[in-house]
């Protein structure tokens, strides 16, 4: 089949590699325009755009997929199908109707659970022990289209969203190519079930501020789900302080109170204390919680707020 791929972040690149190694014909790539990054605010192309230019594949970066010039060029490429991995923009009906077999999305959840922009992050924050990836045909309603296939993925007690996404991006690439192979042979998707629908909106900074009155397990899961971005945070000495990995203990401390020991740092919660495994003070690189505790030379009685 002739394919035009749509995607933006690094998690989409394994799918591009898998498609390029398949028997399908990749004739174009759609990605979000270069965005300003770093202190210089210099526009940086997306990982998908970088991949496409390295492989001499035509790149389209419309400001919005409803742009007439983009619609005209996509129609001229005449794709049979458009696979999608984390493109980051809603597709209008006139664009959805261009490819013969529609747009097929690789979504990182077991649909119909966790429809939306942050499925892995929200699932881990909910404490799930299993998640997965699903391929489906895109319709106008958010992540509600009929299903082609899925894979499952175990989530370990210290797995972060970044680690799970990395694994799913590799395994999901194989699922996506398998789905495209089946579509080429005439496979049709099946409707999603009505039961079990949930949503996973994009994480905002207010969503990942640590409320130390909550249970330790909930806070540990929030920390994992927010790693690497946007990063769970609290305040220490009036400055933002990121917690990147933590685990519950059996010890007791008042909520927010910090107990810096020689080999560990504990913080009180609404239940048992939380052990800080990896942290990132403002302006510094991530470090072990115990190393931060030794270097901070806390006098005792400090508390996160």
Give an account of the 3D structure.
With 305 residues, the protein is of the alpha/beta class. It has two domains: 2-184, Formyl transferase, N-terminal domain (Rossmann fold); 205-296, Formyl transferase, C-terminal domain (Methionyl-tRNA Fmet Formyltransferase, Chain A, domain 2, Roll). 26% of the residues lie in helices and 25% in strands. The chain contains eight helices and 15 strands. It has helices spanning 13-20, 47-54, 68-77, 93-96, 119-125, 161-184, 216-225, 289-296, and strands at 2-7, 25-30, 35-37, 42-44, 59-60, 82-85, 103-107, 130-137, 147-154, 232-236, 239-248, 258-260, 265-267, 274-281, 287-288. It has a seven-stranded mixed beta sheet. The longest helix is centred in the middle third of the chain and has 24 residues, at 161-184. It is elongated and about 70 Å long. The relative contact order is 0.11. The model has no long low-confidence stretch (mean pLDDT 95).
């Amino acid at each position: 089949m002739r394919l035009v791929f749509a995607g933006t972040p690094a998690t989409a690149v394994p799918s591009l590699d898998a498609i390029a190694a398949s028997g399908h014909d990749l004739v174009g790539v759609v990605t979000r325009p270069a965005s300003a990054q770093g202190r210089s605010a210099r526009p940086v192309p997306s990982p998908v755009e970088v991949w496409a230019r390295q492989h001499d594949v035509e790149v389209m970066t419309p400001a919005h997929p409803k742009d007439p010039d983009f619609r005209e060029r996509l129609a001229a490429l005449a794709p049979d199908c458009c696979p999608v991995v984390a493109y980051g923009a809603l597709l209008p009906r006139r664009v959805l109707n261009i490819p013969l077999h529609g747009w097929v999305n690789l979504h990182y959840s077991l649909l119909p659970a966790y429809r939306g922009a942050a499925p892995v992050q929200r699932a881990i924050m909910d404490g799930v022990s299993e998640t997965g990836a699903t391929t489906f045909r895109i319709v106008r309603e958010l992540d509600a289209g009929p299903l082609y296939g899925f894979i499952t993925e175990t989530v370990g007690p210290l797995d972060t969203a970044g680690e799970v996404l990395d694994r799913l991006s590799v395994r999901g690439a194989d699922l996506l190519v398998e789905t495209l192979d089946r579509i080429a042979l005439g496979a049709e998707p099946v409707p999603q079930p009505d039961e079990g629908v949930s949503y996973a909106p994009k994480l905002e900074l207010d969503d990942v501020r640590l409320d130390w009155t909550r249970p330790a397990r909930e806070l540990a899961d929030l920390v994992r789900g927010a790693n690497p971005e946007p990063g769970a945070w609290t305040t220490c000495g009036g400055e933002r302080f990121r917690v990147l990995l933590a685990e519950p203990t059996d010890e007791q401390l008042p909520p927010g109170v910090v107990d810096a020991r020689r080999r560990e740092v504990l913080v009180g919660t609404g239940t048992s204390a939380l052990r800080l495994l990896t942290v990132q003070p403002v302006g510094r690189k991530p470090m072990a919680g115990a190393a931060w505790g030794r270097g901070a030379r806390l006098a005792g009685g400090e508390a996160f707020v």
